[in-house]
Amino acid sequence: MIKYFFIVILFCLSGNLIAQGSTNSSGSGNFNNAAIWANPINLTNNAIVLNSHTVTVSANTNIYANKITFEGNGKLVFSNTTSKWLPASSLNSNPNFESFVDQNNWSTGNLNRGYNNEAFGQGHNGQWHYTSWIDSDQAWSAPVANNKTDYLQYDLQSVRWIQGIVTQGRANSAQWVRTAKVEVSVLGTDDWVTVSPVLGFTLNTDQITKVYNNFPRVMFGRFIRVTPIDVNGFASMRLGILLREFNLFKTCKEIRDANPSAVSGVYTIDPDGPTLNNGATGSQPATSCYCDMDTDGGGWTLVLNYLHKKDTYPVLSPKSKSLPLLGSSTLGINESSLVANWGHATPAYLTSFPFTEIRFYGKTSSHSRVIHFKTSHPGTISYFKTGNGWMSGIQTAGNFTTLSGHNSYLPGNAIYFFSNQGNYAMTSFPFYSGTNPNHHWGIGGENWRWEVDDIGGTNDTHHQIWIR
């Protein structure tokens, strides 16, 4: 008897604690709609279609469940041959991951703060203790070294097919999570299910390496919570969510072309396809972006956004793995401390995106003129993609088209152009008119000049650049 007792204990400790329950349909509808299931967190284990209910699987859609049970005349209807039912144990051998630089995706177990009471993406004395996304310059660090209750949580914003997690340690210090408890939820309230082994998933052994942990089966959920159990030095980590399916468009224009009714807002794109270590083709990860689906036919992707407050002198933020998101558009607001909103794409990153048009927008508290134009000027596109060259020629009639609200002198009166500015090609006086009159496009130029069709950079300004 003792011998068998120990065998049972060993099995429990080595196995995975994952929901083995079932869920009933609560009505007819789409299989992927959480609202038609009584307990959707159990969907991938055993889905029970009750009598008189018809559950449909849309075209080009996969569903995942280890078992589907039918009662009475309950039905599962596949729209056509592109609809498939796969076992929940069918994992993607090269899953892509989601890990966005957007505070709406993240929360923690301590008033949504990191170490030193820091809010998401905001630093203190050169440290950024709530920068939790994969490949960030630091990490999320818990308020205390390791109390085994503080957690990092990710919100996919909608229910998805989740396959696992990917983690890193802290980029700038020897701190990482060795083991952690991982839970998944549909509602984010009382339906949490533990998907990790009893002793937790084994995570990182260094600061940089990405460690992938698949769940025993695909889970149907929205929220993922990771609670450190054992740590090296301090509970610090960077987190991404492995998705069973991750089909994305490359640009906002592709989204707009596929769905003409798409509205302006935050979307997910992958500029060059799935990443090499998590998919098949490109080298860049998927990222959140802001799409303008209204201006000039829509389909514009935001690649530079600086909302600057007068008499402040913040540093710029070149981004090599993510894009800035549109926050406020009100002059006088200071967004320099908001990692998600403040910054611009580097030339190396911009090269990953397919585009043929660039749109400039700028306004200032100094006057009422607005810069708003688009261009397909080859020299400008090449300069922004490489950091080498210049924008000379942009001022020529036919090389730019003014858009709604444009009433500035630039770019038509530009006669000077900074060249070969590398990562600061879009910001460091790419075009200006010189003297009498003196009109500049300058973003933190000479570390203090913020200018929109003027000179004397101590005003409230908002600069944007978009691509399509």
Quick rundown:
The chain has 468 residues and is mostly beta strands. The protein has 4 helices and 28 strands.
Structure description:
This protein is mainly β. It folds into three domains: 2-86, no CATH class; 96-243, Galactose-binding domain-like (Jelly Rolls), CATH 2.60.120.260; 252-467, no CATH class. Helix content is 7%, strand content 32%. It has four helices and 28 strands. It has helices spanning 2-14, 252-258, 347-350, 378-386; strands spanning 23-24, 29-30, 47-49, 54-57, 62-64, 68-70, 75-78, 84-86, 96-98, 106-108, 140-141, 152-168, 176-185, 193-194, 201-202, 211-232, 236-243, 265-269, 287-292, 300-308, 318-319, 343-345, 358-364, 371-375, 401-402, 440-445, 449-454, 461-467. The strands form six sheets. Strands 9, 10, 11, 12, 13, 14, 15, 16 and 17 form a nine-stranded antiparallel β-sheet that branches. Strands 18, 19, 20, 21, 22, 23, 24, 25 and 28 form a nine-stranded mixed β-sheet that branches. Strands 1-3-6 form a three-stranded parallel β-sheet, with no helix packed on it.
Cα gyration radius (Å): 25 Å
Strand content: 25-35%
How many separate structural domains? Answer: 3
Q: Termini, distance in Å?
A: 71 Å
What is the fold's blueprint, element by element?
Blueprint: H1 2-14, E1 23-24, E2 29-30, E3 47-49, E4 54-57, E5 62-64, E6 68-70, E7 75-78, E8 84-86, E9 96-98, E10 106-108, E11 140-141, E12 152-168, E13 176-185, E14 193-194, E15 201-202, E16 211-232, E17 236-243, H2 252-258, E18 265-269, E19 287-292, E20 300-308, E21 318-319, E22 343-345, H3 347-350, E23 358-364, E24 371-375, H4 378-386, E25 401-402, E26 440-445, E27 449-454, E28 461-467
Parallel strand pairs: 1-3, 2-4, 3-6, 4-7, 5-8, 21-22
Antiparallel strand pairs: 9-17, 10-12, 11-17, 12-16, 12-17, 13-14, 13-15, 13-16, 18-19, 19-20, 20-22, 20-28, 23-24, 23-28, 24-25, 26-27
